[in-house]
Amino acid sequence: MEKKVWKLSELGFPVILVYLGFLNAVEMQKGKQKAFESHKEWDLLVREHSRILFPQQVWNPERLLGRGLVPLIRTVQIPFDRSIEEFVVT
Predict the structure, then answer these.
(1) What's residue 47's pLDDT?
(2) CA distances from 42 to 7, 12, 46, 73 (A)
(3) How far is CA 61 from the centre of its chain?
(4) Is pLDDT of 85 > 70?
(5) Domain region containing 37
(6) Are 42 and 75 in contact (CB under 8 A)?
(7) Number of domains within the chain
(8) 31-58 tens-digit pLDDT
(9) 10, 36, 56, 66: which is deepest, by most CB within 10 A?
(10) Contact yes or no for 58/4 (Cβ under 8 A)
(11) Distance of CA 89 to the CA centre of its chain
């Protein structure tokens, strides 16, 4: 996926790539894997898994990389007892 995204940005297409983690999503747990409780947990996991692929400075840039690539690490919590319009991505 990342190679295709990078190619699109090299061709001049602006690309925002969002690695979105869902917080406290216990319904998504499998086996011993626990739900993410904070943005920091998700951020650290994404950075750890991507460390061998590219430099850590690429995450959450203040300006476009290359010709228009913006890789972001974000989290969201969507509680079941509220309207989906109320959720906030951090």
Answers:
(1) 94
(2) 26, 30, 6, 8
(3) 13
(4) no
(5) 2-86
(6) yes
(7) 1
(8) 777 888 999 999 999 999 999 987 888 8
(9) 36
(10) no
(11) 10
Unique residue bearing structure tokens 């940005």: 9
Residue type, 88: V
The long-range contacts involving 57-66, CB below 8 angstroms and separated by at least 24 positions, are 64/14, 65/9, 66/6, 66/9, 66/10
Contacts for 22 with CB less than 8 Å, ≥ 6 apart = 28, 35, 36, 75, 76, 77, 78
Question: pTM of this prediction?
Answer: 0.73
Q: Which residues are bridge partners to 72 per DSSP? A: 18
Q: How confident is the model at residue 5 (pLDDT cuts 50, 70, 90)?
A: confident
Residue with tokens 């959720």: 87
